[in-house]
Amino acid sequence: MYRNAPKSVSDPSSNPLDDICPVCKSNRYLNPSLQFLINPECYHKMCSTCVDRIFTSGPSSCPVPHCGRTLRKKGFRKAFFTDLHVEREVDIRKRVSEVFNRRQDEFETLLDWNNYLEEVESLVFDLVEGSAAEKTRAEERLREYRDAYREEIEGNKRVGKEEVEGERRRERAEKEGARARRLAMAREVEEEKADVEKGKRDLLERLANSDGNANAITRQAQKVILKKSSARRNITEEVLASNGSANSGLTIRGLKKKVAPVEEKPYDPFGGVNITPARFTVQESYDNEWLGNAKKDTRHMAGGYSLQEYYARTMFEAFSGLGVFIEEEVADRGQKGDPSIGTAAAAEASGGKINIGHKMEIDDVF
């Protein structure tokens, strides 16, 4: 959708003089075959006769008053849009897109890509609707960018051409596949009709020359016809699958390899650490006198309470000290230094009394 532009003089509903050449004053009303051309240098329209007369011998200035742009005959073409403002904006966008032809996969984040698009759109706006100074700065910026990133621009052009060519090959392959399917379907219909007619003739001959049951002969002939139709349909499907497919023998360069998504595993709050007890196994129930009253207590039947949790906690506390070996810890501490030094410091910090000899007295906090 293009932005609102003022109504062009090329709209016949706004100005009847639009059908008159500004150079030779030829009128389309008197000459219905009159054709108007424009040049992207200034977008001043003139008839094809004036273009041939003025620019055939070489470049010349635009004959429209107060223009003076140097024009060449090869630059003239027929306008696609009736509104020349839209025509000019489309040409500017094409020219800018040939230079600013970055691709989204070249940017690290989506925000960077959107900022790039906004920058390009601002440049286009300056070239279309800006003042003379803004247009000059925009043209200078466009030229500097072209000179700075010439190799990247050419590389993206080649990639774009390869994508367009690949898309064309794919479309041609799809059309060929569709045509092959249509021909195969038409051939199948014709063969089926021929088999039906042949089957009818054979059936009439057998009924005329045979003394057997007519109903049995008819059913047998119908089975033969159905079997032939099924076999022919299977052959046609195999041929289409091997040769008539739209993607047969088609390879598109530059596509990323498809990687199967990794199956997401259930969330593990312990990060893969196995917390299953190795020294005991919690049973469903224990026959113990200390648990008799607990099992009968109605308070233990409240929602959320579980005797299994109580069993597991009790067993963990009972077996928690089995992995601690005092002798090994004392030997390791003795190798690192005199244990009396650390013991004395700990005793003083706890407020107890200490004997510097081999006996230590500490107040029992319990």
TrEMBL record:
Gene3D superfamilies in UniProt: Zinc/RING finger domain, C3HC4 (zinc finger)
Subcellular location: Nucleus
GO biological process: nucleotide-excision repair; regulation of transcription by RNA polymerase II
Coiled-coil region(s): 128-206
A GO term from the CC aspect: transcription factor TFIIK complex
Keyword S-adenosyl-L-methionine: no
Keywords: Coiled coil, Metal-binding, Nucleus, Zinc, Zinc-finger
Main location: nucleus
Protein name: RNA polymerase II transcription factor B subunit 3
Biological source species: Lachnellula hyalina
